[in-house]
Amino acid sequence: MFNSNLLSAAVSSVSVTLVSFSVFAGSVDNNQPANVLITESKLKNIEVIEVYAQKRKQNINNLSVAVSVIDGKAIARQQLKDTTQLSALVPNLKITNNAGEGTPPAFNIRGVGMIDYNTSTISPISIYADDVVTGSANNLSINLYDLEQVEVLRGPQGSLFGRNTTGGAILLRSQQPEKEFGGYINASVAQYDTLSLKGAVNLPISDTTAMRFAFSHQDYEFSTENQMPGQPDGGLKQTNLRLIVKSEFDDLTITSKFHLEDWSGKPKPIASLGINRTDGNGRCSPSQAGSNLCMDNFGSQVGGKDFWAVNADTADRKHDTESWGASVKLAWQLNADMLLTSISGYRALDRFHSWDSDGAGNFIEGSMGTDNTLFSQELSLAVEMGDSHWVSGLFYVSEDIKQKNDFDLFRDFRAIPELAAVPAQFFYDNRLENRAFALYSQIDHKLNQTFTLIAGLRYTDETTDYHASADLDLVNAFIPDLWDIKGVVEDDEFSGKLALNQKINNQASLYYSYSRGYKSGGYNAGYSTNPVQAAESEYAPEKLDAYEIGSYLQFWQQNARLHLAAFYYDYKDQQVFVNQTQGIAVDHVLKNAGDSTIYGFESELVLTPSVDWELRLNVGYLPKANMGSFNQHGVVVEDNRLPFASKWNISGAIIHEMLVLGHDLTAQLSFDFQSDFYFDQEENAYTQQTDFMVINGHVSYEFNPALTLTLWGKNLTNTEYSELRFNTIAALGAITELKAEARQLGIEASYKF
Known about the structure:
Maltoporin, Chain A; 5 helices; 5-stranded mixed beta sheet; globular; 753 residues
């Protein structure tokens, strides 16, 4: 595990660096010419950041929301494969493949998130890919390739966006077609049989129309080493295609997009970490779990001393995803002050993922089969009225989720007559139809040269129709329609925002904000094990009152940029995913907890002390992120810390550019530190992830304007940490664990044309 001395050294180094820069910056006399103390050749002004966080291109200083901006170059330097890896660059953002890659990931912003493993969940954090909402948690994992930038908005969003979210929103903006021919191709090889090919080509078609075709292909294995004979280490092949056609006329711009994804392979094998001492003297400690000192209830051990060694029978497990989508955006400039925008989107996803939670045995296994279709339509009107900018819109989304899942419990007992009454396999046939309609409006009114008032209002009307049924297979019987439940969950609510932006000068601004976030209720079509639990799987809406103060500052002759935000959340009826044990079975339920409280702080600092150096430091601090207590029908939620809510997360990077033999060489070293957190609501020491730090790096050399060679490394210190720890102590005497990826080194060649 991570050595705390390393953290101390890293923090000390950062502190010394920042103090040095602060002293140096403070010593500059702004009344003196710039070349008195710092020559122009030594400094590189930070570029002005322009964002689309409020549905239009704006200078970031004009915002009243906390937003992190990641450009396409930063994504490429960090070798980020998909949206689940963005947390290394954004404060108070945590994302993990909590049920294995290819399943619904857990997104968490400022302690607000959802860790549900099933495929019916609507996350409190939405992704908008080129202005089109991606829908349920099934679609949150998106490969990152050929992007202009990514924006992560923290806090409730609703008065400007289609989907209502309490946690935040992530905006993906693809590279747009240009009117000149060009493109690139990147080829990479790395450890664990990793092959990657990415590229794009830009084609002008006429004076008004251009198209851009981009692709990404990944073929890789996981670093987990499966020691069970004949069993795979797991890995995926992912092919992603995107075509954008853009036509620009005098008053009308039409942007059409088509995308296709094809993923297949074997899931990452889990480690079943036994917690019973092999000498019979009780339980192993959490740090000993899975070692040679420990075994599960059936005498099984992981085997081997390597952290990434597992022992899992996953040969019959597989993953397959086929998805595609299309969208059309019409932007019609009615006159100099009015812009009418229509965004139509459709997305279809067909996925099968089978999983294993028991190591070498056949005790807790299952599958997720999902047929997901989504249609969305948004119509908005933006009007400039002197000192005011006003946006109003209509939004409609229709999403159908069909599930064909199974849950296979204690299959190995079927061959033992004395235990034949225990095994059971559930087959689920669920359908959810979600319909949401919303009206939203926001006005930005410039009160004077200093203050701008922002006021937004939203009305949401949402309906979820569900039909859940299950069959049960026992050793001596098959019970069809163990339950067959239909129902409707209907919600409607007003939410909104009131904020004030204070312009200090051209390089500094403050904002003060209050937002009411709202997320509707629904039905949790998960792995229920009895009719009562299935019948009680409806959940109610959650509401969030968010108070925030922040600033966007540029200083040190515009060679430093600092973004700060402090927030306080008052949560009502928070939707909490709960792992609970009923006898030896582990059940997953989604319930509304009581009132919750979250507050914290964020900062993002960028320094460019000279033309060839850049330093970045992001700090997220959550001193309190507790859920409200809940006790109903045997489901108990204590007033514990929220899952995936580290008190500290700190990340940063040092980037250095230099000339070597007359050509550009760029080197980057980055880190991501996360303090302790829990994977569920129990605060169980066996499911705690202790603090860790991951260090990544890359060196690229530009041989000429067309050819660049890059050496890169991930997790350079081979830090040992988990993507998931799941409590299966009652059933197996073990902890189910998904290992995070080990150190990986690779090389990439990039050719531009």
